């Protein structure tokens, strides 16, 4: 949390934060000054304010005082209030909880995510229906079809993604997004997420999306000097696979980038440059066209 706790002592959330983390992170824990500080602020918790009710709610859900302190320190306060309000309803649906879970992951609210999973939110649930303010899939931005795991991949929130996987989320699920978490992370060029998935979930590299594209296709289309060789080494046996437009990874590399040096890597892994796409163009044809264009320029 930004700022010094002592400078904002009138803020009830800082008092709660001080209480929740007093066993873990505040300095000078054994000083008399701190003991007086703690007693004073603990007394402020003995009431029925909304803030205290939320703290009790989180403690009842099994979260440690330290975890709650982390949540408050990371700015999850308003979102925790939203969760508390929703879950007070005995008939709170799985859909509502799961929508909140996607939002928690989107904002990297780790403790809120853990709480919602404890409350039986479904990590495979995807947004449905129209919601204003969300860009479309065409912009490669967050859009309605992502479940919580795909949202973590899109945002590059590695801790959220790892925790969801540990809790049984399915990384191979296409869902409404029509792509796996690897496709999403590669397209977004999230290096650490891709490294983790390549090392821990190598089988995902052999899965195609709804456009018949493997992660290697997207690594070529959205070229990154770190990600591309990682993906290539993990799935070289799909190096000549064609997507729904009959483009190989090499086609997409030439069409969407000017990184022709990477073609040498593809060739070293068995890529063929004489395969035609649905416009009857081979990689060799595209390269000739590019050379002619450069000469005209």
Describe this structure in words.
The protein has 297 residues and is mostly helical. The protein has a domain at 206-297: Serine Threonine Protein Phosphatase 5, Tetratricopeptide repeat (Alpha Horseshoe), CATH 1.25.40. 51% of the residues lie in helices and 0% in strands. The chain contains 16 helices and no strands. It has helices spanning 12-20, 32-43, 50-60, 65-73, 77-87, 94-106, 110-118, 148-155, 158-166, 181-187, 191-200, 215-221, 227-234, 249-256, 262-268, 283-296. The protein is elongated.
Features:
single chain, 51% helix, mainly alpha, elongated, 297 residues, Serine Threonine Protein Phosphatase 5, Tetratricopeptide repeat
Write the layout of secondary structure elements.
Elements: H1 12-20, H2 32-43, H3 50-60, H4 65-73, H5 77-87, H6 94-106, H7 110-118, H8 148-155, H9 158-166, H10 181-187, H11 191-200, H12 215-221, H13 227-234, H14 249-256, H15 262-268, H16 283-296
Helix pairs in contact: 1-4, 5-6, 6-7, 6-8, 8-9, 8-10, 10-12, 11-13, 12-13, 12-14
Task: Put the structure in a nutshell.
It contains 16 helices and no strands. By secondary structure, the chain is mainly alpha-helical. The protein has a domain of 92 residues: Ankyrin repeat-containing domain (Serine Threonine Protein Phosphatase 5, Tetratricopeptide repeat, Alpha Horseshoe), CATH 1.25.40.
The helical percent reads: 40-55%
Biggest sheet overview: none
Regions with little confidence, pLDDT below 50 for 5+ residues: 1-19, 21-30, 128-143, 292-297
Q: What structural class should be given to the helix and strand makeup? A: mainly alpha
Number of helix segments? 16
Beta-strand portion reads under 5%
CA-based gyration radius: 25 Å
Predict the CATH topology of the domain at 206-297.
Answer: Serine Threonine Protein Phosphatase 5, Tetratricopeptide repeat
Mean pLDDT: 76
Measured between the Cα atoms of the first and last residue, the distance is 54 Å
Order of helices and strands: HHHHHHHHHHHHHHHH
Please report the total strand number as a whole number. 0
CATH class of the domain at 206-297: Mainly Alpha
**CATH-scheme architecture of the domain at 206-297:** Alpha Horseshoe
CATH superfamily of the domain at 206-297: Ankyrin repeat-containing domain
Q: Give the CA-based shape.
A: elongated
């Amino acid at each position: 949390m930004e700022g010094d706790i002592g400078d904002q002592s009138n803020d009830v959330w800082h008092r709660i934060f001080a209480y929740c983390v007093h066993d873990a992170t505040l300095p000078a824990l054994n000083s008399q000054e701190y003991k007086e500080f703690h007693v004073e602020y603990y007394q402020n918790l003995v009431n029925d304010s909304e803030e205290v009710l939320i703290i009790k709610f989180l403690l009842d859900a099994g979260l440690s005082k330290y975890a709650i302190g982390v949540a408050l320190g990371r700015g999850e306060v308003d979102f925790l209030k939203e969760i508390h309000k929703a879950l007070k309803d005995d008939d709170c649906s799985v859909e509502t909880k799961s929508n909140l879970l996607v939002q928690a992951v989107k904002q990297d609210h780790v403790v809120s995510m853990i709480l919602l999973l404890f409350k039986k939110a479904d990590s495979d649930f995807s947004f449905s229906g129209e919601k204003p303010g969300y860009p479309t899939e065409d912009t490669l931005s967050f859009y309605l079809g992502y479940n919580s795991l795909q949202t973590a991949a899109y945002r590059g929130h590695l801790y959220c993604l790892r925790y969801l996987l540990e809790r049984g989320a399915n990384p191979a699920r296409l869902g409404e997004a029509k792509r796996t978490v690897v496709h999403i992370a590669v397209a977004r060029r999230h290096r650490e997420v891709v490294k983790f998935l390549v090392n821990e979930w190598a089988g995902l590299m052999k899965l195609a999306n709804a456009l018949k594209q493997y992660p290697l296709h997207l690594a070529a289309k959205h070229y990154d000097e770190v990600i591309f060789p990682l993906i290539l080494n993990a799935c070289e046996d799909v190096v000549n696979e064609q997507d729904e437009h009959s483009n190989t990874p090499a086609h997409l590399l030439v069409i969407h980038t000017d990184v022709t040096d990477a073609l040498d890597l593809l060739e070293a892994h068995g890529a063929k440059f004489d395969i035609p796409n649905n416009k009857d163009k081979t990689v060799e044809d595209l390269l000739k066209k590019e050379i002619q264009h450069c000469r005209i320029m």
